[in-house]
Amino acid sequence: MPELPEVEALAHHLRQNAAGRTVTRVDVASMTVLKTVSPAWTELHGRQVSTAARFGKHLDLDCDGLHLVTHLARAGWLRWSDSLAPAPPRPGKGPIALRVHLDGPGFDLTEAGTKKGLAVWIVEDPATVPSIARLGPDALGVDRTRLAELFAGRTERLKTALTDQSLIAGIGNAYSDEIMHAARLSPYATAGKLGDDALDRLAEAMREVLTDAVSRSVGQDAARLKGEKRSGLRVHARTGLPCPVCGDTVREISFTDKSFQYCPTCQTGGKPLADRRMSRLLK
Asked: What PANTHER family is this protein classified in (predicted)?
């Protein structure tokens, strides 16, 4: 899933390559991605792209006051092209959900797999998008003091708290694993019971992991961002490999539709966490 660093890099790419260009046509290949009816997508035609921005994990393309807001969900992506085919994509055929033609280049919003979550809104104000209206403070702006305020009294596990977009915006499954590993904290720690030292480490890890990922991602071609993300990960998606810090084997906890990874030595005092999926199977 594209998270804060990748979406920030996509916004930067659009500011560099799309700003100042005119939207000549929008092709909708999958009507299910559109979450708004009015204004119609055709109202984007003829508008000049002003800028691009990010709200949490949402990407916003400002077209002279009319906004094309996208949430790429788990398997969505933006595929930039210096020259798009003039023929519109065939509805229901292939991964393309929506295509934006500019005066020369353009881009496709694509989604792989059968489980669809890609969402597009066309609005006059991004704040009217329900999932943006519910966002908590952006993760890049959360310091140690604010983090303590946000976690005060929280009873959920740290993994859950870090990925709750209404609490902190922008962190997903991958970077929450990386942040907890860097902070040497268990995914099962209770968010509201972290001590001062743990909060210090967590705030520093959030800042370092996210700013490093943004610096590595911004300026990359959109096509290279996924590979850049994978290359910087220490524990996420590295099940069975040695931890680059201590050499212990990276472990995994699996659920129905997702999993997360951690290092027992670095994060849980050397004790592997119970995989609840396996526990259920053994009952």
From this structure: FORMAMIDOPYRIMIDINE-DNA GLYCOSYLASE
pLDDT digits (tens, 9 = 90+) for 123-168: 999 999 999 999 999 999 999 999 999 999 999 999 999 999 999 9
- Top CATH class, 139-282: mainly alpha
Q: Is the pLDDT of residue 180 over 80?
A: yes
Number of H helices, E strands in the chain: 9, 10
Tokens of 175: 């970077």
> Which CATH superfamily is 4-133 part of?
MutM-like, N-terminal (3.20.190.10)
For residue 189, what is the DSSP state?
A: S
Q: Amino acid identity of 219? A: G
The domains of the chain are located at 4-133, 139-282
Chain-centroid distance, C-alpha 134: 16
Burial 24-60 (b: 16+ CB within 10 A, else e): bbbbbbbeebbeeeeeebeebeebebbebbbbbbbbb
pTM of this prediction?
0.93
Q: What is the CA radius of gyration of the chain?
A: 20
Calculate ∠ Cα 24-26-31, nearest 5°.
170
In whole angstroms, how far apart are CA 234 and each of 3, 134, 241, 245? 16, 31, 10, 9
* Nearest partner of 257 among 161, 123, 113, 119, judged by Cα: 113
75 with 112: CB under 8 angstroms?
Answer: yes
Which 3 state secondary structure label does DSSP give 107? strand
- For 99, the enclosing helix (H) or strand (E) is strand 96-102
pLDDT digits (tens, 9 = 90+) for 74-87: 999 999 999 999 89
| Dihedral (CA of 238, 242, 243, 248) sign | positive
Q: What is the pLDDT of residue 276?
A: 61
**Cα–Cα dist 213/9, whole Å:** 10
Q: How far apart are CA 184 and CA 123, in angstroms?
A: 42
